[in-house]
Amino acid sequence: MSWKPLRVLTPRSILPALAVLLVLVAGAAAHANKPVPFGDRVAEPGGASAGPVGTQSPGADGLELKVGPGLEAYNRATGEHAWSYRREGATALYLSMAGESAVVVWDDGLITSVRPGDHEVRWHRAVPGLEDWLSGEGEPGAEKRTDEQRRQLQRERAAAALHTVQQSSPWVAVVTPELTMGFRDADGDLRYNSKPAGNCVYDPTRTVGTDFAVLVPRSCTNSTGQPVSGGVTGYRLDSTGWQLNAGPTVSMKALDGRRVLISDGPIVGPKVFDTKAAAPEAACGSPAEPFAAVRPQGSCTAPEDAPQP
Fold it and tell me: How far apart are CA 283 and CA 85, in angstroms?
């Protein structure tokens, strides 16, 4: 067995070890001070971070959720502030529920999903172009808007951009003029992204969602800038979507959780589209009614005369 005698450490031999130690300490300190990704801050009232799950906050059914400046949760029974979710440098604009998840649009173009029952931030997704469209910068008259008008525009556009679909596995659609994207809420997975073709843009303000699908109209122009026929694209995650031809002034209104009234001018006339069956509802008294995929719902009245929810 060979052995070597203990070596006495001289000042010169200690320096490399000290250097390594300093690097490790500096790295640990930098890691400890690293900002939370996306600027997330979830806190109980008066606290720096959230408490243990379920210790102070009621379940999701016992909470009332509000937005501004972050996602704020209040106890329904007492009205007390239960917890808040904030993001540094960003303001929450709009909230919509996807199943048991609270999906929030932020003014920096980020979409987040939060589970209210244990105030866990589940996923973040950035939507290209969303921040610019929300702010409306560069649009005619933008420089004349007051701060409150800018904030109101952001809130209105956030509500138009975000749609949550509840049936099957809940999912989230985000619509901007240049892009529409769909995310599965279970894990934030991107399921589709679509850009309008040619001289067309999507119209978030006319987009309609149901419990089964999201219908997004397109506005199109010809080479001289005149409005021409566009269309409506239906998006679903549990089956293939569809395309509907439509004029430049088509309007849509949800009648219930599955049917949408589509009005496309006096010549075509209004019709009802069933987003669960992915087919138009047969017109009352038409020869095709007995053989239609979707027969008229309830009493046989014209769609425009049907009671609105």
Answer: 49
